[in-house]
């Protein structure tokens, strides 16, 4: 038996590692819901305790009401184990029998702990015998239905070889009515009248055995049990005399065997009545193990038995029926009965990790664990922490092995108030794969993959927010922003950069968009900017200058924002530069393009390094036959040209600063020129200066046109 159970335990660990059954994960998810509820109740109870301590100066354990709440939580845990068992039992595999037995052990341990230490009334001051009987009968069914059917179908039933074993088992398990019914077999007409009378009276005693649940008070139950017990002892004292009458009646038909029959019947009825009288030796003789003896003890031997009596009673029983320590579940149950809750939890660890974790937390909430009971569980677990915290840490590490259960692992770690647990939470969050899906041939599949990806991203971020991990939110968003930028998903990259509150990254993405503009053209650029979330574009647009007033003067506004205004500077620039290209695409909107260009040139959000490119963009408008710039706008453009050309005439660094984007615009074919880096740089500056001189000359020519033709500008 021990070898079988050990083999089952090994298989269970393999099963857990493989996460093979869907029912497994459902069980862990449902039990986590119960765990979360327990944490909420305990937190509320702790706040109440703090108030009591503040008012009275006395600390108190869980209140009666709180323990009643905890009892209901324990019932929910047990219900989940039962549901899990039922789900597996419905479609058992070839190797499921031992695992189902294991689940019954898990259920039995949790239910016994709840029964003994977190009773339904929140106090547990009453007798405990019948509660133990109900628990044991649910855990270890006996006698079996098959055995009962076999006895009942025999003709007559009392001739069946297992008849008396069945009767004794019914009495030991508290099925007194069933035992009474079976004894009715001796009331048949072919049975001596004296024997019929003995069987009938015994059956009646069984039927009227007092039950604690049938009495309003403990005192009335014990009084009734004493009276009943006296009746049984009186009847037992008369059994020899009454069996003499049975022998006389048997001798009439079977003189040779009458004495043997009488001795057999007397022995069986005497054993039965001694069981009912609670004779200790008889209970120990007929009980299959210490658990059955313990449960019977509270019903027949010591009906006044309470929870505090259990350690002494167990010691008496195990002197005759020792605990089988080769079976982990036996040791756990025995330690619970002895009152060694902490040791029981430790023994649960090799038995079942789920049980150790959740029962450990449950007992901790009820203030049942010894202080300073912690020890390192596995590599990576924190040292010098409580047993409960170590168990939760270890369980979270198990859960995270399954990718889909990482969120649940965080919940368990969040209940551990250690820096190691916090670090583990960070590691889990950072390890969740968030790589954006690459582009594919099928747009629909790409769309679905992206939706699934960003749903996972939001799940990770919401978890960070839930646990107050703001720094981790920014780190994850920053990583995503960089990754999306490399994939040219600029809109999303900007969104996550803003969410990371990383103005530097926003600027970097904005520069990448400009780089793509020079490589792919205006149409691609417009598409890139349009991918930026509208809400960000609206905020960005709010820091741009308004359209010129009727007198041509440019007015500016810089409203406050929840973000620093400089965060939106690159977005503000791109909004307007996109609009410029849209206006420029249609000759009928060139006046709007000219106005937008001037707004860009004069806006604080425009990078100074891009001003030269904007001035080059103005050339087609300046050289057109119509006049698109007003006189004040022309002067503003000239001012900027003079600023750039003046700077370009100074140190090389100044020229490179103002021309860096213009270099890209003029870059085509430059790499084919011969010469070293120095020569190429000189060639670039020369070409840029030439182009700016063209812009300057065009502006001067345009200015003369505006002056010569007053009122002709659009």
Helix tally equals: 34
Oligomer: single chain
What is Rg?
Answer: 44 Å
- Shape by Cα distribution: rod-shaped
The largest β sheet comes out as: none
Number of DSSP strand runs: 0
What structural class do you assign from the helix and strand content? mainly alpha
Topology readout:
Elements: H1 2-18, H2 22-56, H3 64-90, H4 97-117, H5 129-139, H6 145-153, H7 163-172, H8 176-183, H9 193-207, H10 218-237, H11 239-253, H12 258-277, H13 280-286, H14 290-301, H15 310-318, H16 328-338, H17 341-351, H18 353-365, H19 387-399, H20 406-414, H21 419-431, H22 443-466, H23 470-486, H24 490-499, H25 503-520, H26 522-530, H27 534-541, H28 569-584, H29 590-602, H30 611-617, H31 619-623, H32 631-648, H33 652-665, H34 677-708
Structural features, described:
This protein starts with a helix and ends in a 6-residue tail after the last helix. The longest helix is centred in the N-terminal third of the chain and has 35 residues, at 22-56. Among the domains are: 1-137 and 302-370, no CATH class; 143-287, no CATH class; 607-714, no CATH class. It contains 34 helices and no strands. It has helices spanning 2-18, 22-56, 64-90, 97-117, 129-139, 145-153, 163-172, 176-183, 193-207, 218-237, 239-253, 258-277, 280-286, 290-301, 310-318, 328-338, 341-351, 353-365, 387-399, 406-414, 419-431, 443-466, 470-486, 490-499, 503-520, 522-530, 534-541, 569-584, 590-602, 611-617, 619-623, 631-648, 652-665, 677-708. The protein is rod-shaped, with a radius of gyration of 44 Å. The protein is mainly α.
């Amino acid at each position: 038996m021990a070898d079988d159970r050990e083999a089952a335990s090994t298989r269970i660990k393999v099963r857990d590692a493989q996460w093979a059954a869907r029912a497994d994960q459902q069980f862990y998810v449902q039990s986590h819901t119960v765990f979360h509820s327990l944490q909420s109740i305990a937190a509320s109870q702790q706040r109440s305790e703090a108030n009591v301590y503040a008012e009275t100066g006395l600390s108190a354990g869980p209140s009666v009401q709180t323990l009643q709440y905890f009892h209901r939580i324990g019932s929910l845990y047990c219900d989940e184990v039962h549901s899990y068992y039922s789900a597996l039992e419905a479609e058992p595999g070839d190797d499921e029998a031992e695992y189902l037995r294991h689940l019954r052990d898990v259920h039995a341990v949790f239910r016994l702990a709840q029964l003994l230490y977190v009773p339904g009334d929140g106090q547990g001051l009453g007798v405990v015998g019948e509660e133990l009987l109900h628990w044991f009968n649910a855990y270890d069914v006996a006698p079996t239905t098959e055995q009962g059917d076999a006895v009942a179908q025999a003709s007559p039933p009392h001739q069946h070889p297992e008849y008396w074993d069945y009767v004794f088992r019914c009495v030991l398990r508290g099925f007194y009515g069933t035992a009474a019914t079976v004894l009715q077999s001796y009331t048949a007409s072919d049975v001596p009248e004296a024997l019929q009378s003995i069987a009938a009276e015994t059956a009646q005693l069984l039927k009227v055995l007092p039950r604690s649940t049938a009495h309003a008070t403990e005192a009335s139950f014990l009084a009734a049990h004493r009276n009943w017990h006296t009746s049984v002892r009186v009847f037992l004292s008369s059994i020899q005399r009454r069996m003499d009458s049975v022998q006389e009646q048997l001798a009439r038909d079977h003189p040779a065997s009458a004495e043997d029959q009488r001795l057999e019947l007397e022995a069986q009825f005497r054993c039965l009545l001694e069981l009912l009288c609670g004779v200790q030796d008889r209970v120990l003789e007929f009980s299959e193990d210490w658990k059955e003896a313990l449960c019977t003890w509270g019903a027949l031997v010591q009906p006044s038995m309470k929870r505090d009596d259990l350690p002494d009673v167990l010691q008496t029983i195990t002197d005759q029926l020792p605990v089988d320590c080769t079976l982990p579940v036996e040791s756990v149950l025995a330690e619970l009965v002895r009152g060694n809750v902490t040791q029981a939890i430790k023994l649960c660890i090799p038995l079942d990790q789920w049980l150790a974790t959740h029962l450990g937390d449950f007992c901790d909430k009820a203030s049942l664990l010894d202080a300073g009971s912690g020890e390192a569980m596995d590599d990576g677990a924190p040292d010098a922490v409580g047993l409960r915290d170590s168990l939760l840490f270890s369980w979270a590490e198990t859960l995270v092995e399954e990718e889909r259960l990482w969120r649940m692992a965080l919940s368990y770690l969040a209940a551990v108030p250690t820096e190691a647990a916090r670090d583990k939470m960070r590691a889990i969050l950072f390890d969740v794969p968030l790589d954006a899906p690459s582009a594919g041939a099928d747009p629909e599949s790409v769309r679905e993959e992206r939706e699934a990806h960003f749903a996972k991203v939001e799940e990770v971020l919401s978890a960070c927010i839930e646990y107050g991990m703001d720094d981790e939110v920014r780190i994850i968003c920053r990583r995503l922003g960089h990754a999306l930028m490399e994939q040219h998903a600029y809109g999303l990259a900007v969104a996550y950069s803003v969410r990371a509150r990383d103005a530097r990254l926003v600027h970097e993405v904005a520069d990448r968009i400009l780089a793509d503009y020079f490589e792919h053209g205006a149409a691609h650029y417009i598409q890139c900017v349009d991918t930026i979330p509208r809400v960000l574009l609206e905020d960005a647009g709010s820091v741009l200058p308004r359209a010129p007033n009727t007198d041509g003067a440019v007015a500016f506004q810089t409203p406050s924002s929840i973000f620093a205004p400089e965060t939106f500077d690159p977005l503000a620039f791109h909004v307007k530069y996109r609009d410029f290209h849209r206006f420029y695409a249609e000759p009928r909107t060139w006046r709007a393009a000219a106005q937008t260009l001037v707004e860009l040139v004069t806006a604080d959000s425009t990078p100074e390094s891009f001003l030269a490119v904007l001035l080059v963009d103005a050339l087609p408008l300046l050289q057109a036959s119509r006049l698109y710039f007003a006189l004040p706008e022309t002067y503003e453009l000239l001012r900027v040209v003079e600023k750039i050309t003046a700077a370009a005439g100074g140190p090389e660094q100044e020229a490179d600063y103002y021309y860096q984007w213009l270099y890209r615009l003029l870059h085509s074919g430059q790499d084919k020129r011969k010469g070293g880096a120095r020569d190429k740089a000189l060639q670039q500056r020369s070409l840029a200066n030439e182009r700016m001189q063209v812009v300057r000359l065009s502006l001067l020519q345009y200015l003369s046109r505006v002056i010569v033709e007053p009122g002709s500008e659009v």
